[in-house]
Amino acid sequence: MLHQACTKLEELYSEMVDLRRDFHMYPELSFQEMETPRKIAAYLRKLGIEVQEGVGGRGIVAKIYGKKQKSPEEQDKTVAFRADFDGLPIQDEKQVEYKSRVPGVMHACGHDIHTAALLGTATIIKEYEQEFSGTVVLIFQHAEELVPGGAISMIEDGCLNGVDVIYGAHVFSGLPLGVIGVQEGYMLAAGDEFQIEIRGKGGHGASPHESIDPIVIGSQLILNLQQVVSRRVDPLQPAVLTIGSFQSGATYNVIPDTAQILGTVRTFSEETRTGIEQAMQKIVQHTAEGAGATAQFTYRRGYPSVWNDPVETKRVEAIAKQLVGNERVIRVPPQMGGEDFAYYLQKTSGNFIGVGGGNSEINATYPHHHPMFDVDERSMLQIGKLFLGLLAEHFVLSDEA
Ligand SMILES: [Zn+2]
Ligand SMILES: [Zn+2]
């Protein structure tokens, strides 16, 4: 089945490009997607696929039921694939005919590629419905780019009900086209943000003894917080604590009342994440109290870390090697960036896969979220073929066993 299905996907390439460019020209921001889900649903319905709209807000869940009679010893298996479809608040600066027509909004992460690739793949899977006996769930997710993200509400709305395994692929401009990046265990970090409000007592710059200086306390606090990662966290557990903003005061000779500190924390293990939050809480309180000030500490959790099931990583790796050759499948080092695909992997086994889309010949080398970002559209075929390969593995090859 696989070779033929991949050929059929290739024949669909120009249609996938048209779909991708349409999404690219009309991007929509996270939690504001209106037309994109409507287009996705219309495309799937035309294929005769069952579609549920408004899942967890603006998400779409489509199901393709295999029609092959299953043998008695065979179990009903449900395999899910996820594509996200939101854009970013970035002005598209590329000079290509398909550049964004929406001022200030852009598909600068490749989610248009993911969605068009999954729609093309859905066309082929539907054509093969007589050939397998399980169920394929296609999850088109809104709002990946903005915390709390669309995944969590789609899961609460039941998109993973009955799903045995889930796969998601992300095109990466930093990986050349034709290269596939896999990783077992932790792949992407949990990303949290924090805010600290220090309240002292303002006064004249010439009479510091009559005031409680929030700038000095804030400076001390920033230094004290450096001990969290260096002295409190297990050195074998990756963690980052970065202060991104320290604001206070406005002029030369006035001690202000307050200071505000903003920052981010990135971790992989849940234990480290909780440990850092607790350690920060204590340091903030003690530093402020010791100086006679008060401090309010707010810690907001973003997405958890992406953890890839090792068994599924081996499966993906084997299929990827068949697709692009052994030397073009690499282990991507874990990164401190995040993805809300993490929530699906907390609920079910699965894998998040990096698919190369970089190509210097077409200027597709800029990083994600850059105003010049683009990727080679042939990455859609790689994503589609990987997904078809995974299906064949779950439904056809396992039948022969
Ligand atoms: Zn992104
Ligand atoms: Zn993304």
Automatic annotation (TrEMBL):
Residues 194-288 form the Peptidase M20 dimerisation domain. It comes from Brevibacillus laterosporus LMG 15441. Gene3D superfamilies: 3.30.70.360, Zn peptidases. The gene is yxeP_2. It comes from the Bacteria. Its cofactor is Mn(2+). SUPFAM superfamilies: Bacterial exopeptidase dimerisation domain (SSF55031), Zn-dependent exopeptidases (SSF53187). Keywords: Hydrolase, Manganese, Metal-binding. GO terms for biological process: diaminopimelate biosynthetic process. This is Putative hydrolase YxeP. Pfam families: M20_dimer (PF07687), Peptidase_M20 (PF01546). Mn(2+) binds at C109, H111, E145, H170, H369. One of its GO terms (molecular function) is metal ion binding. The Mn(2+) ion enhances activity.
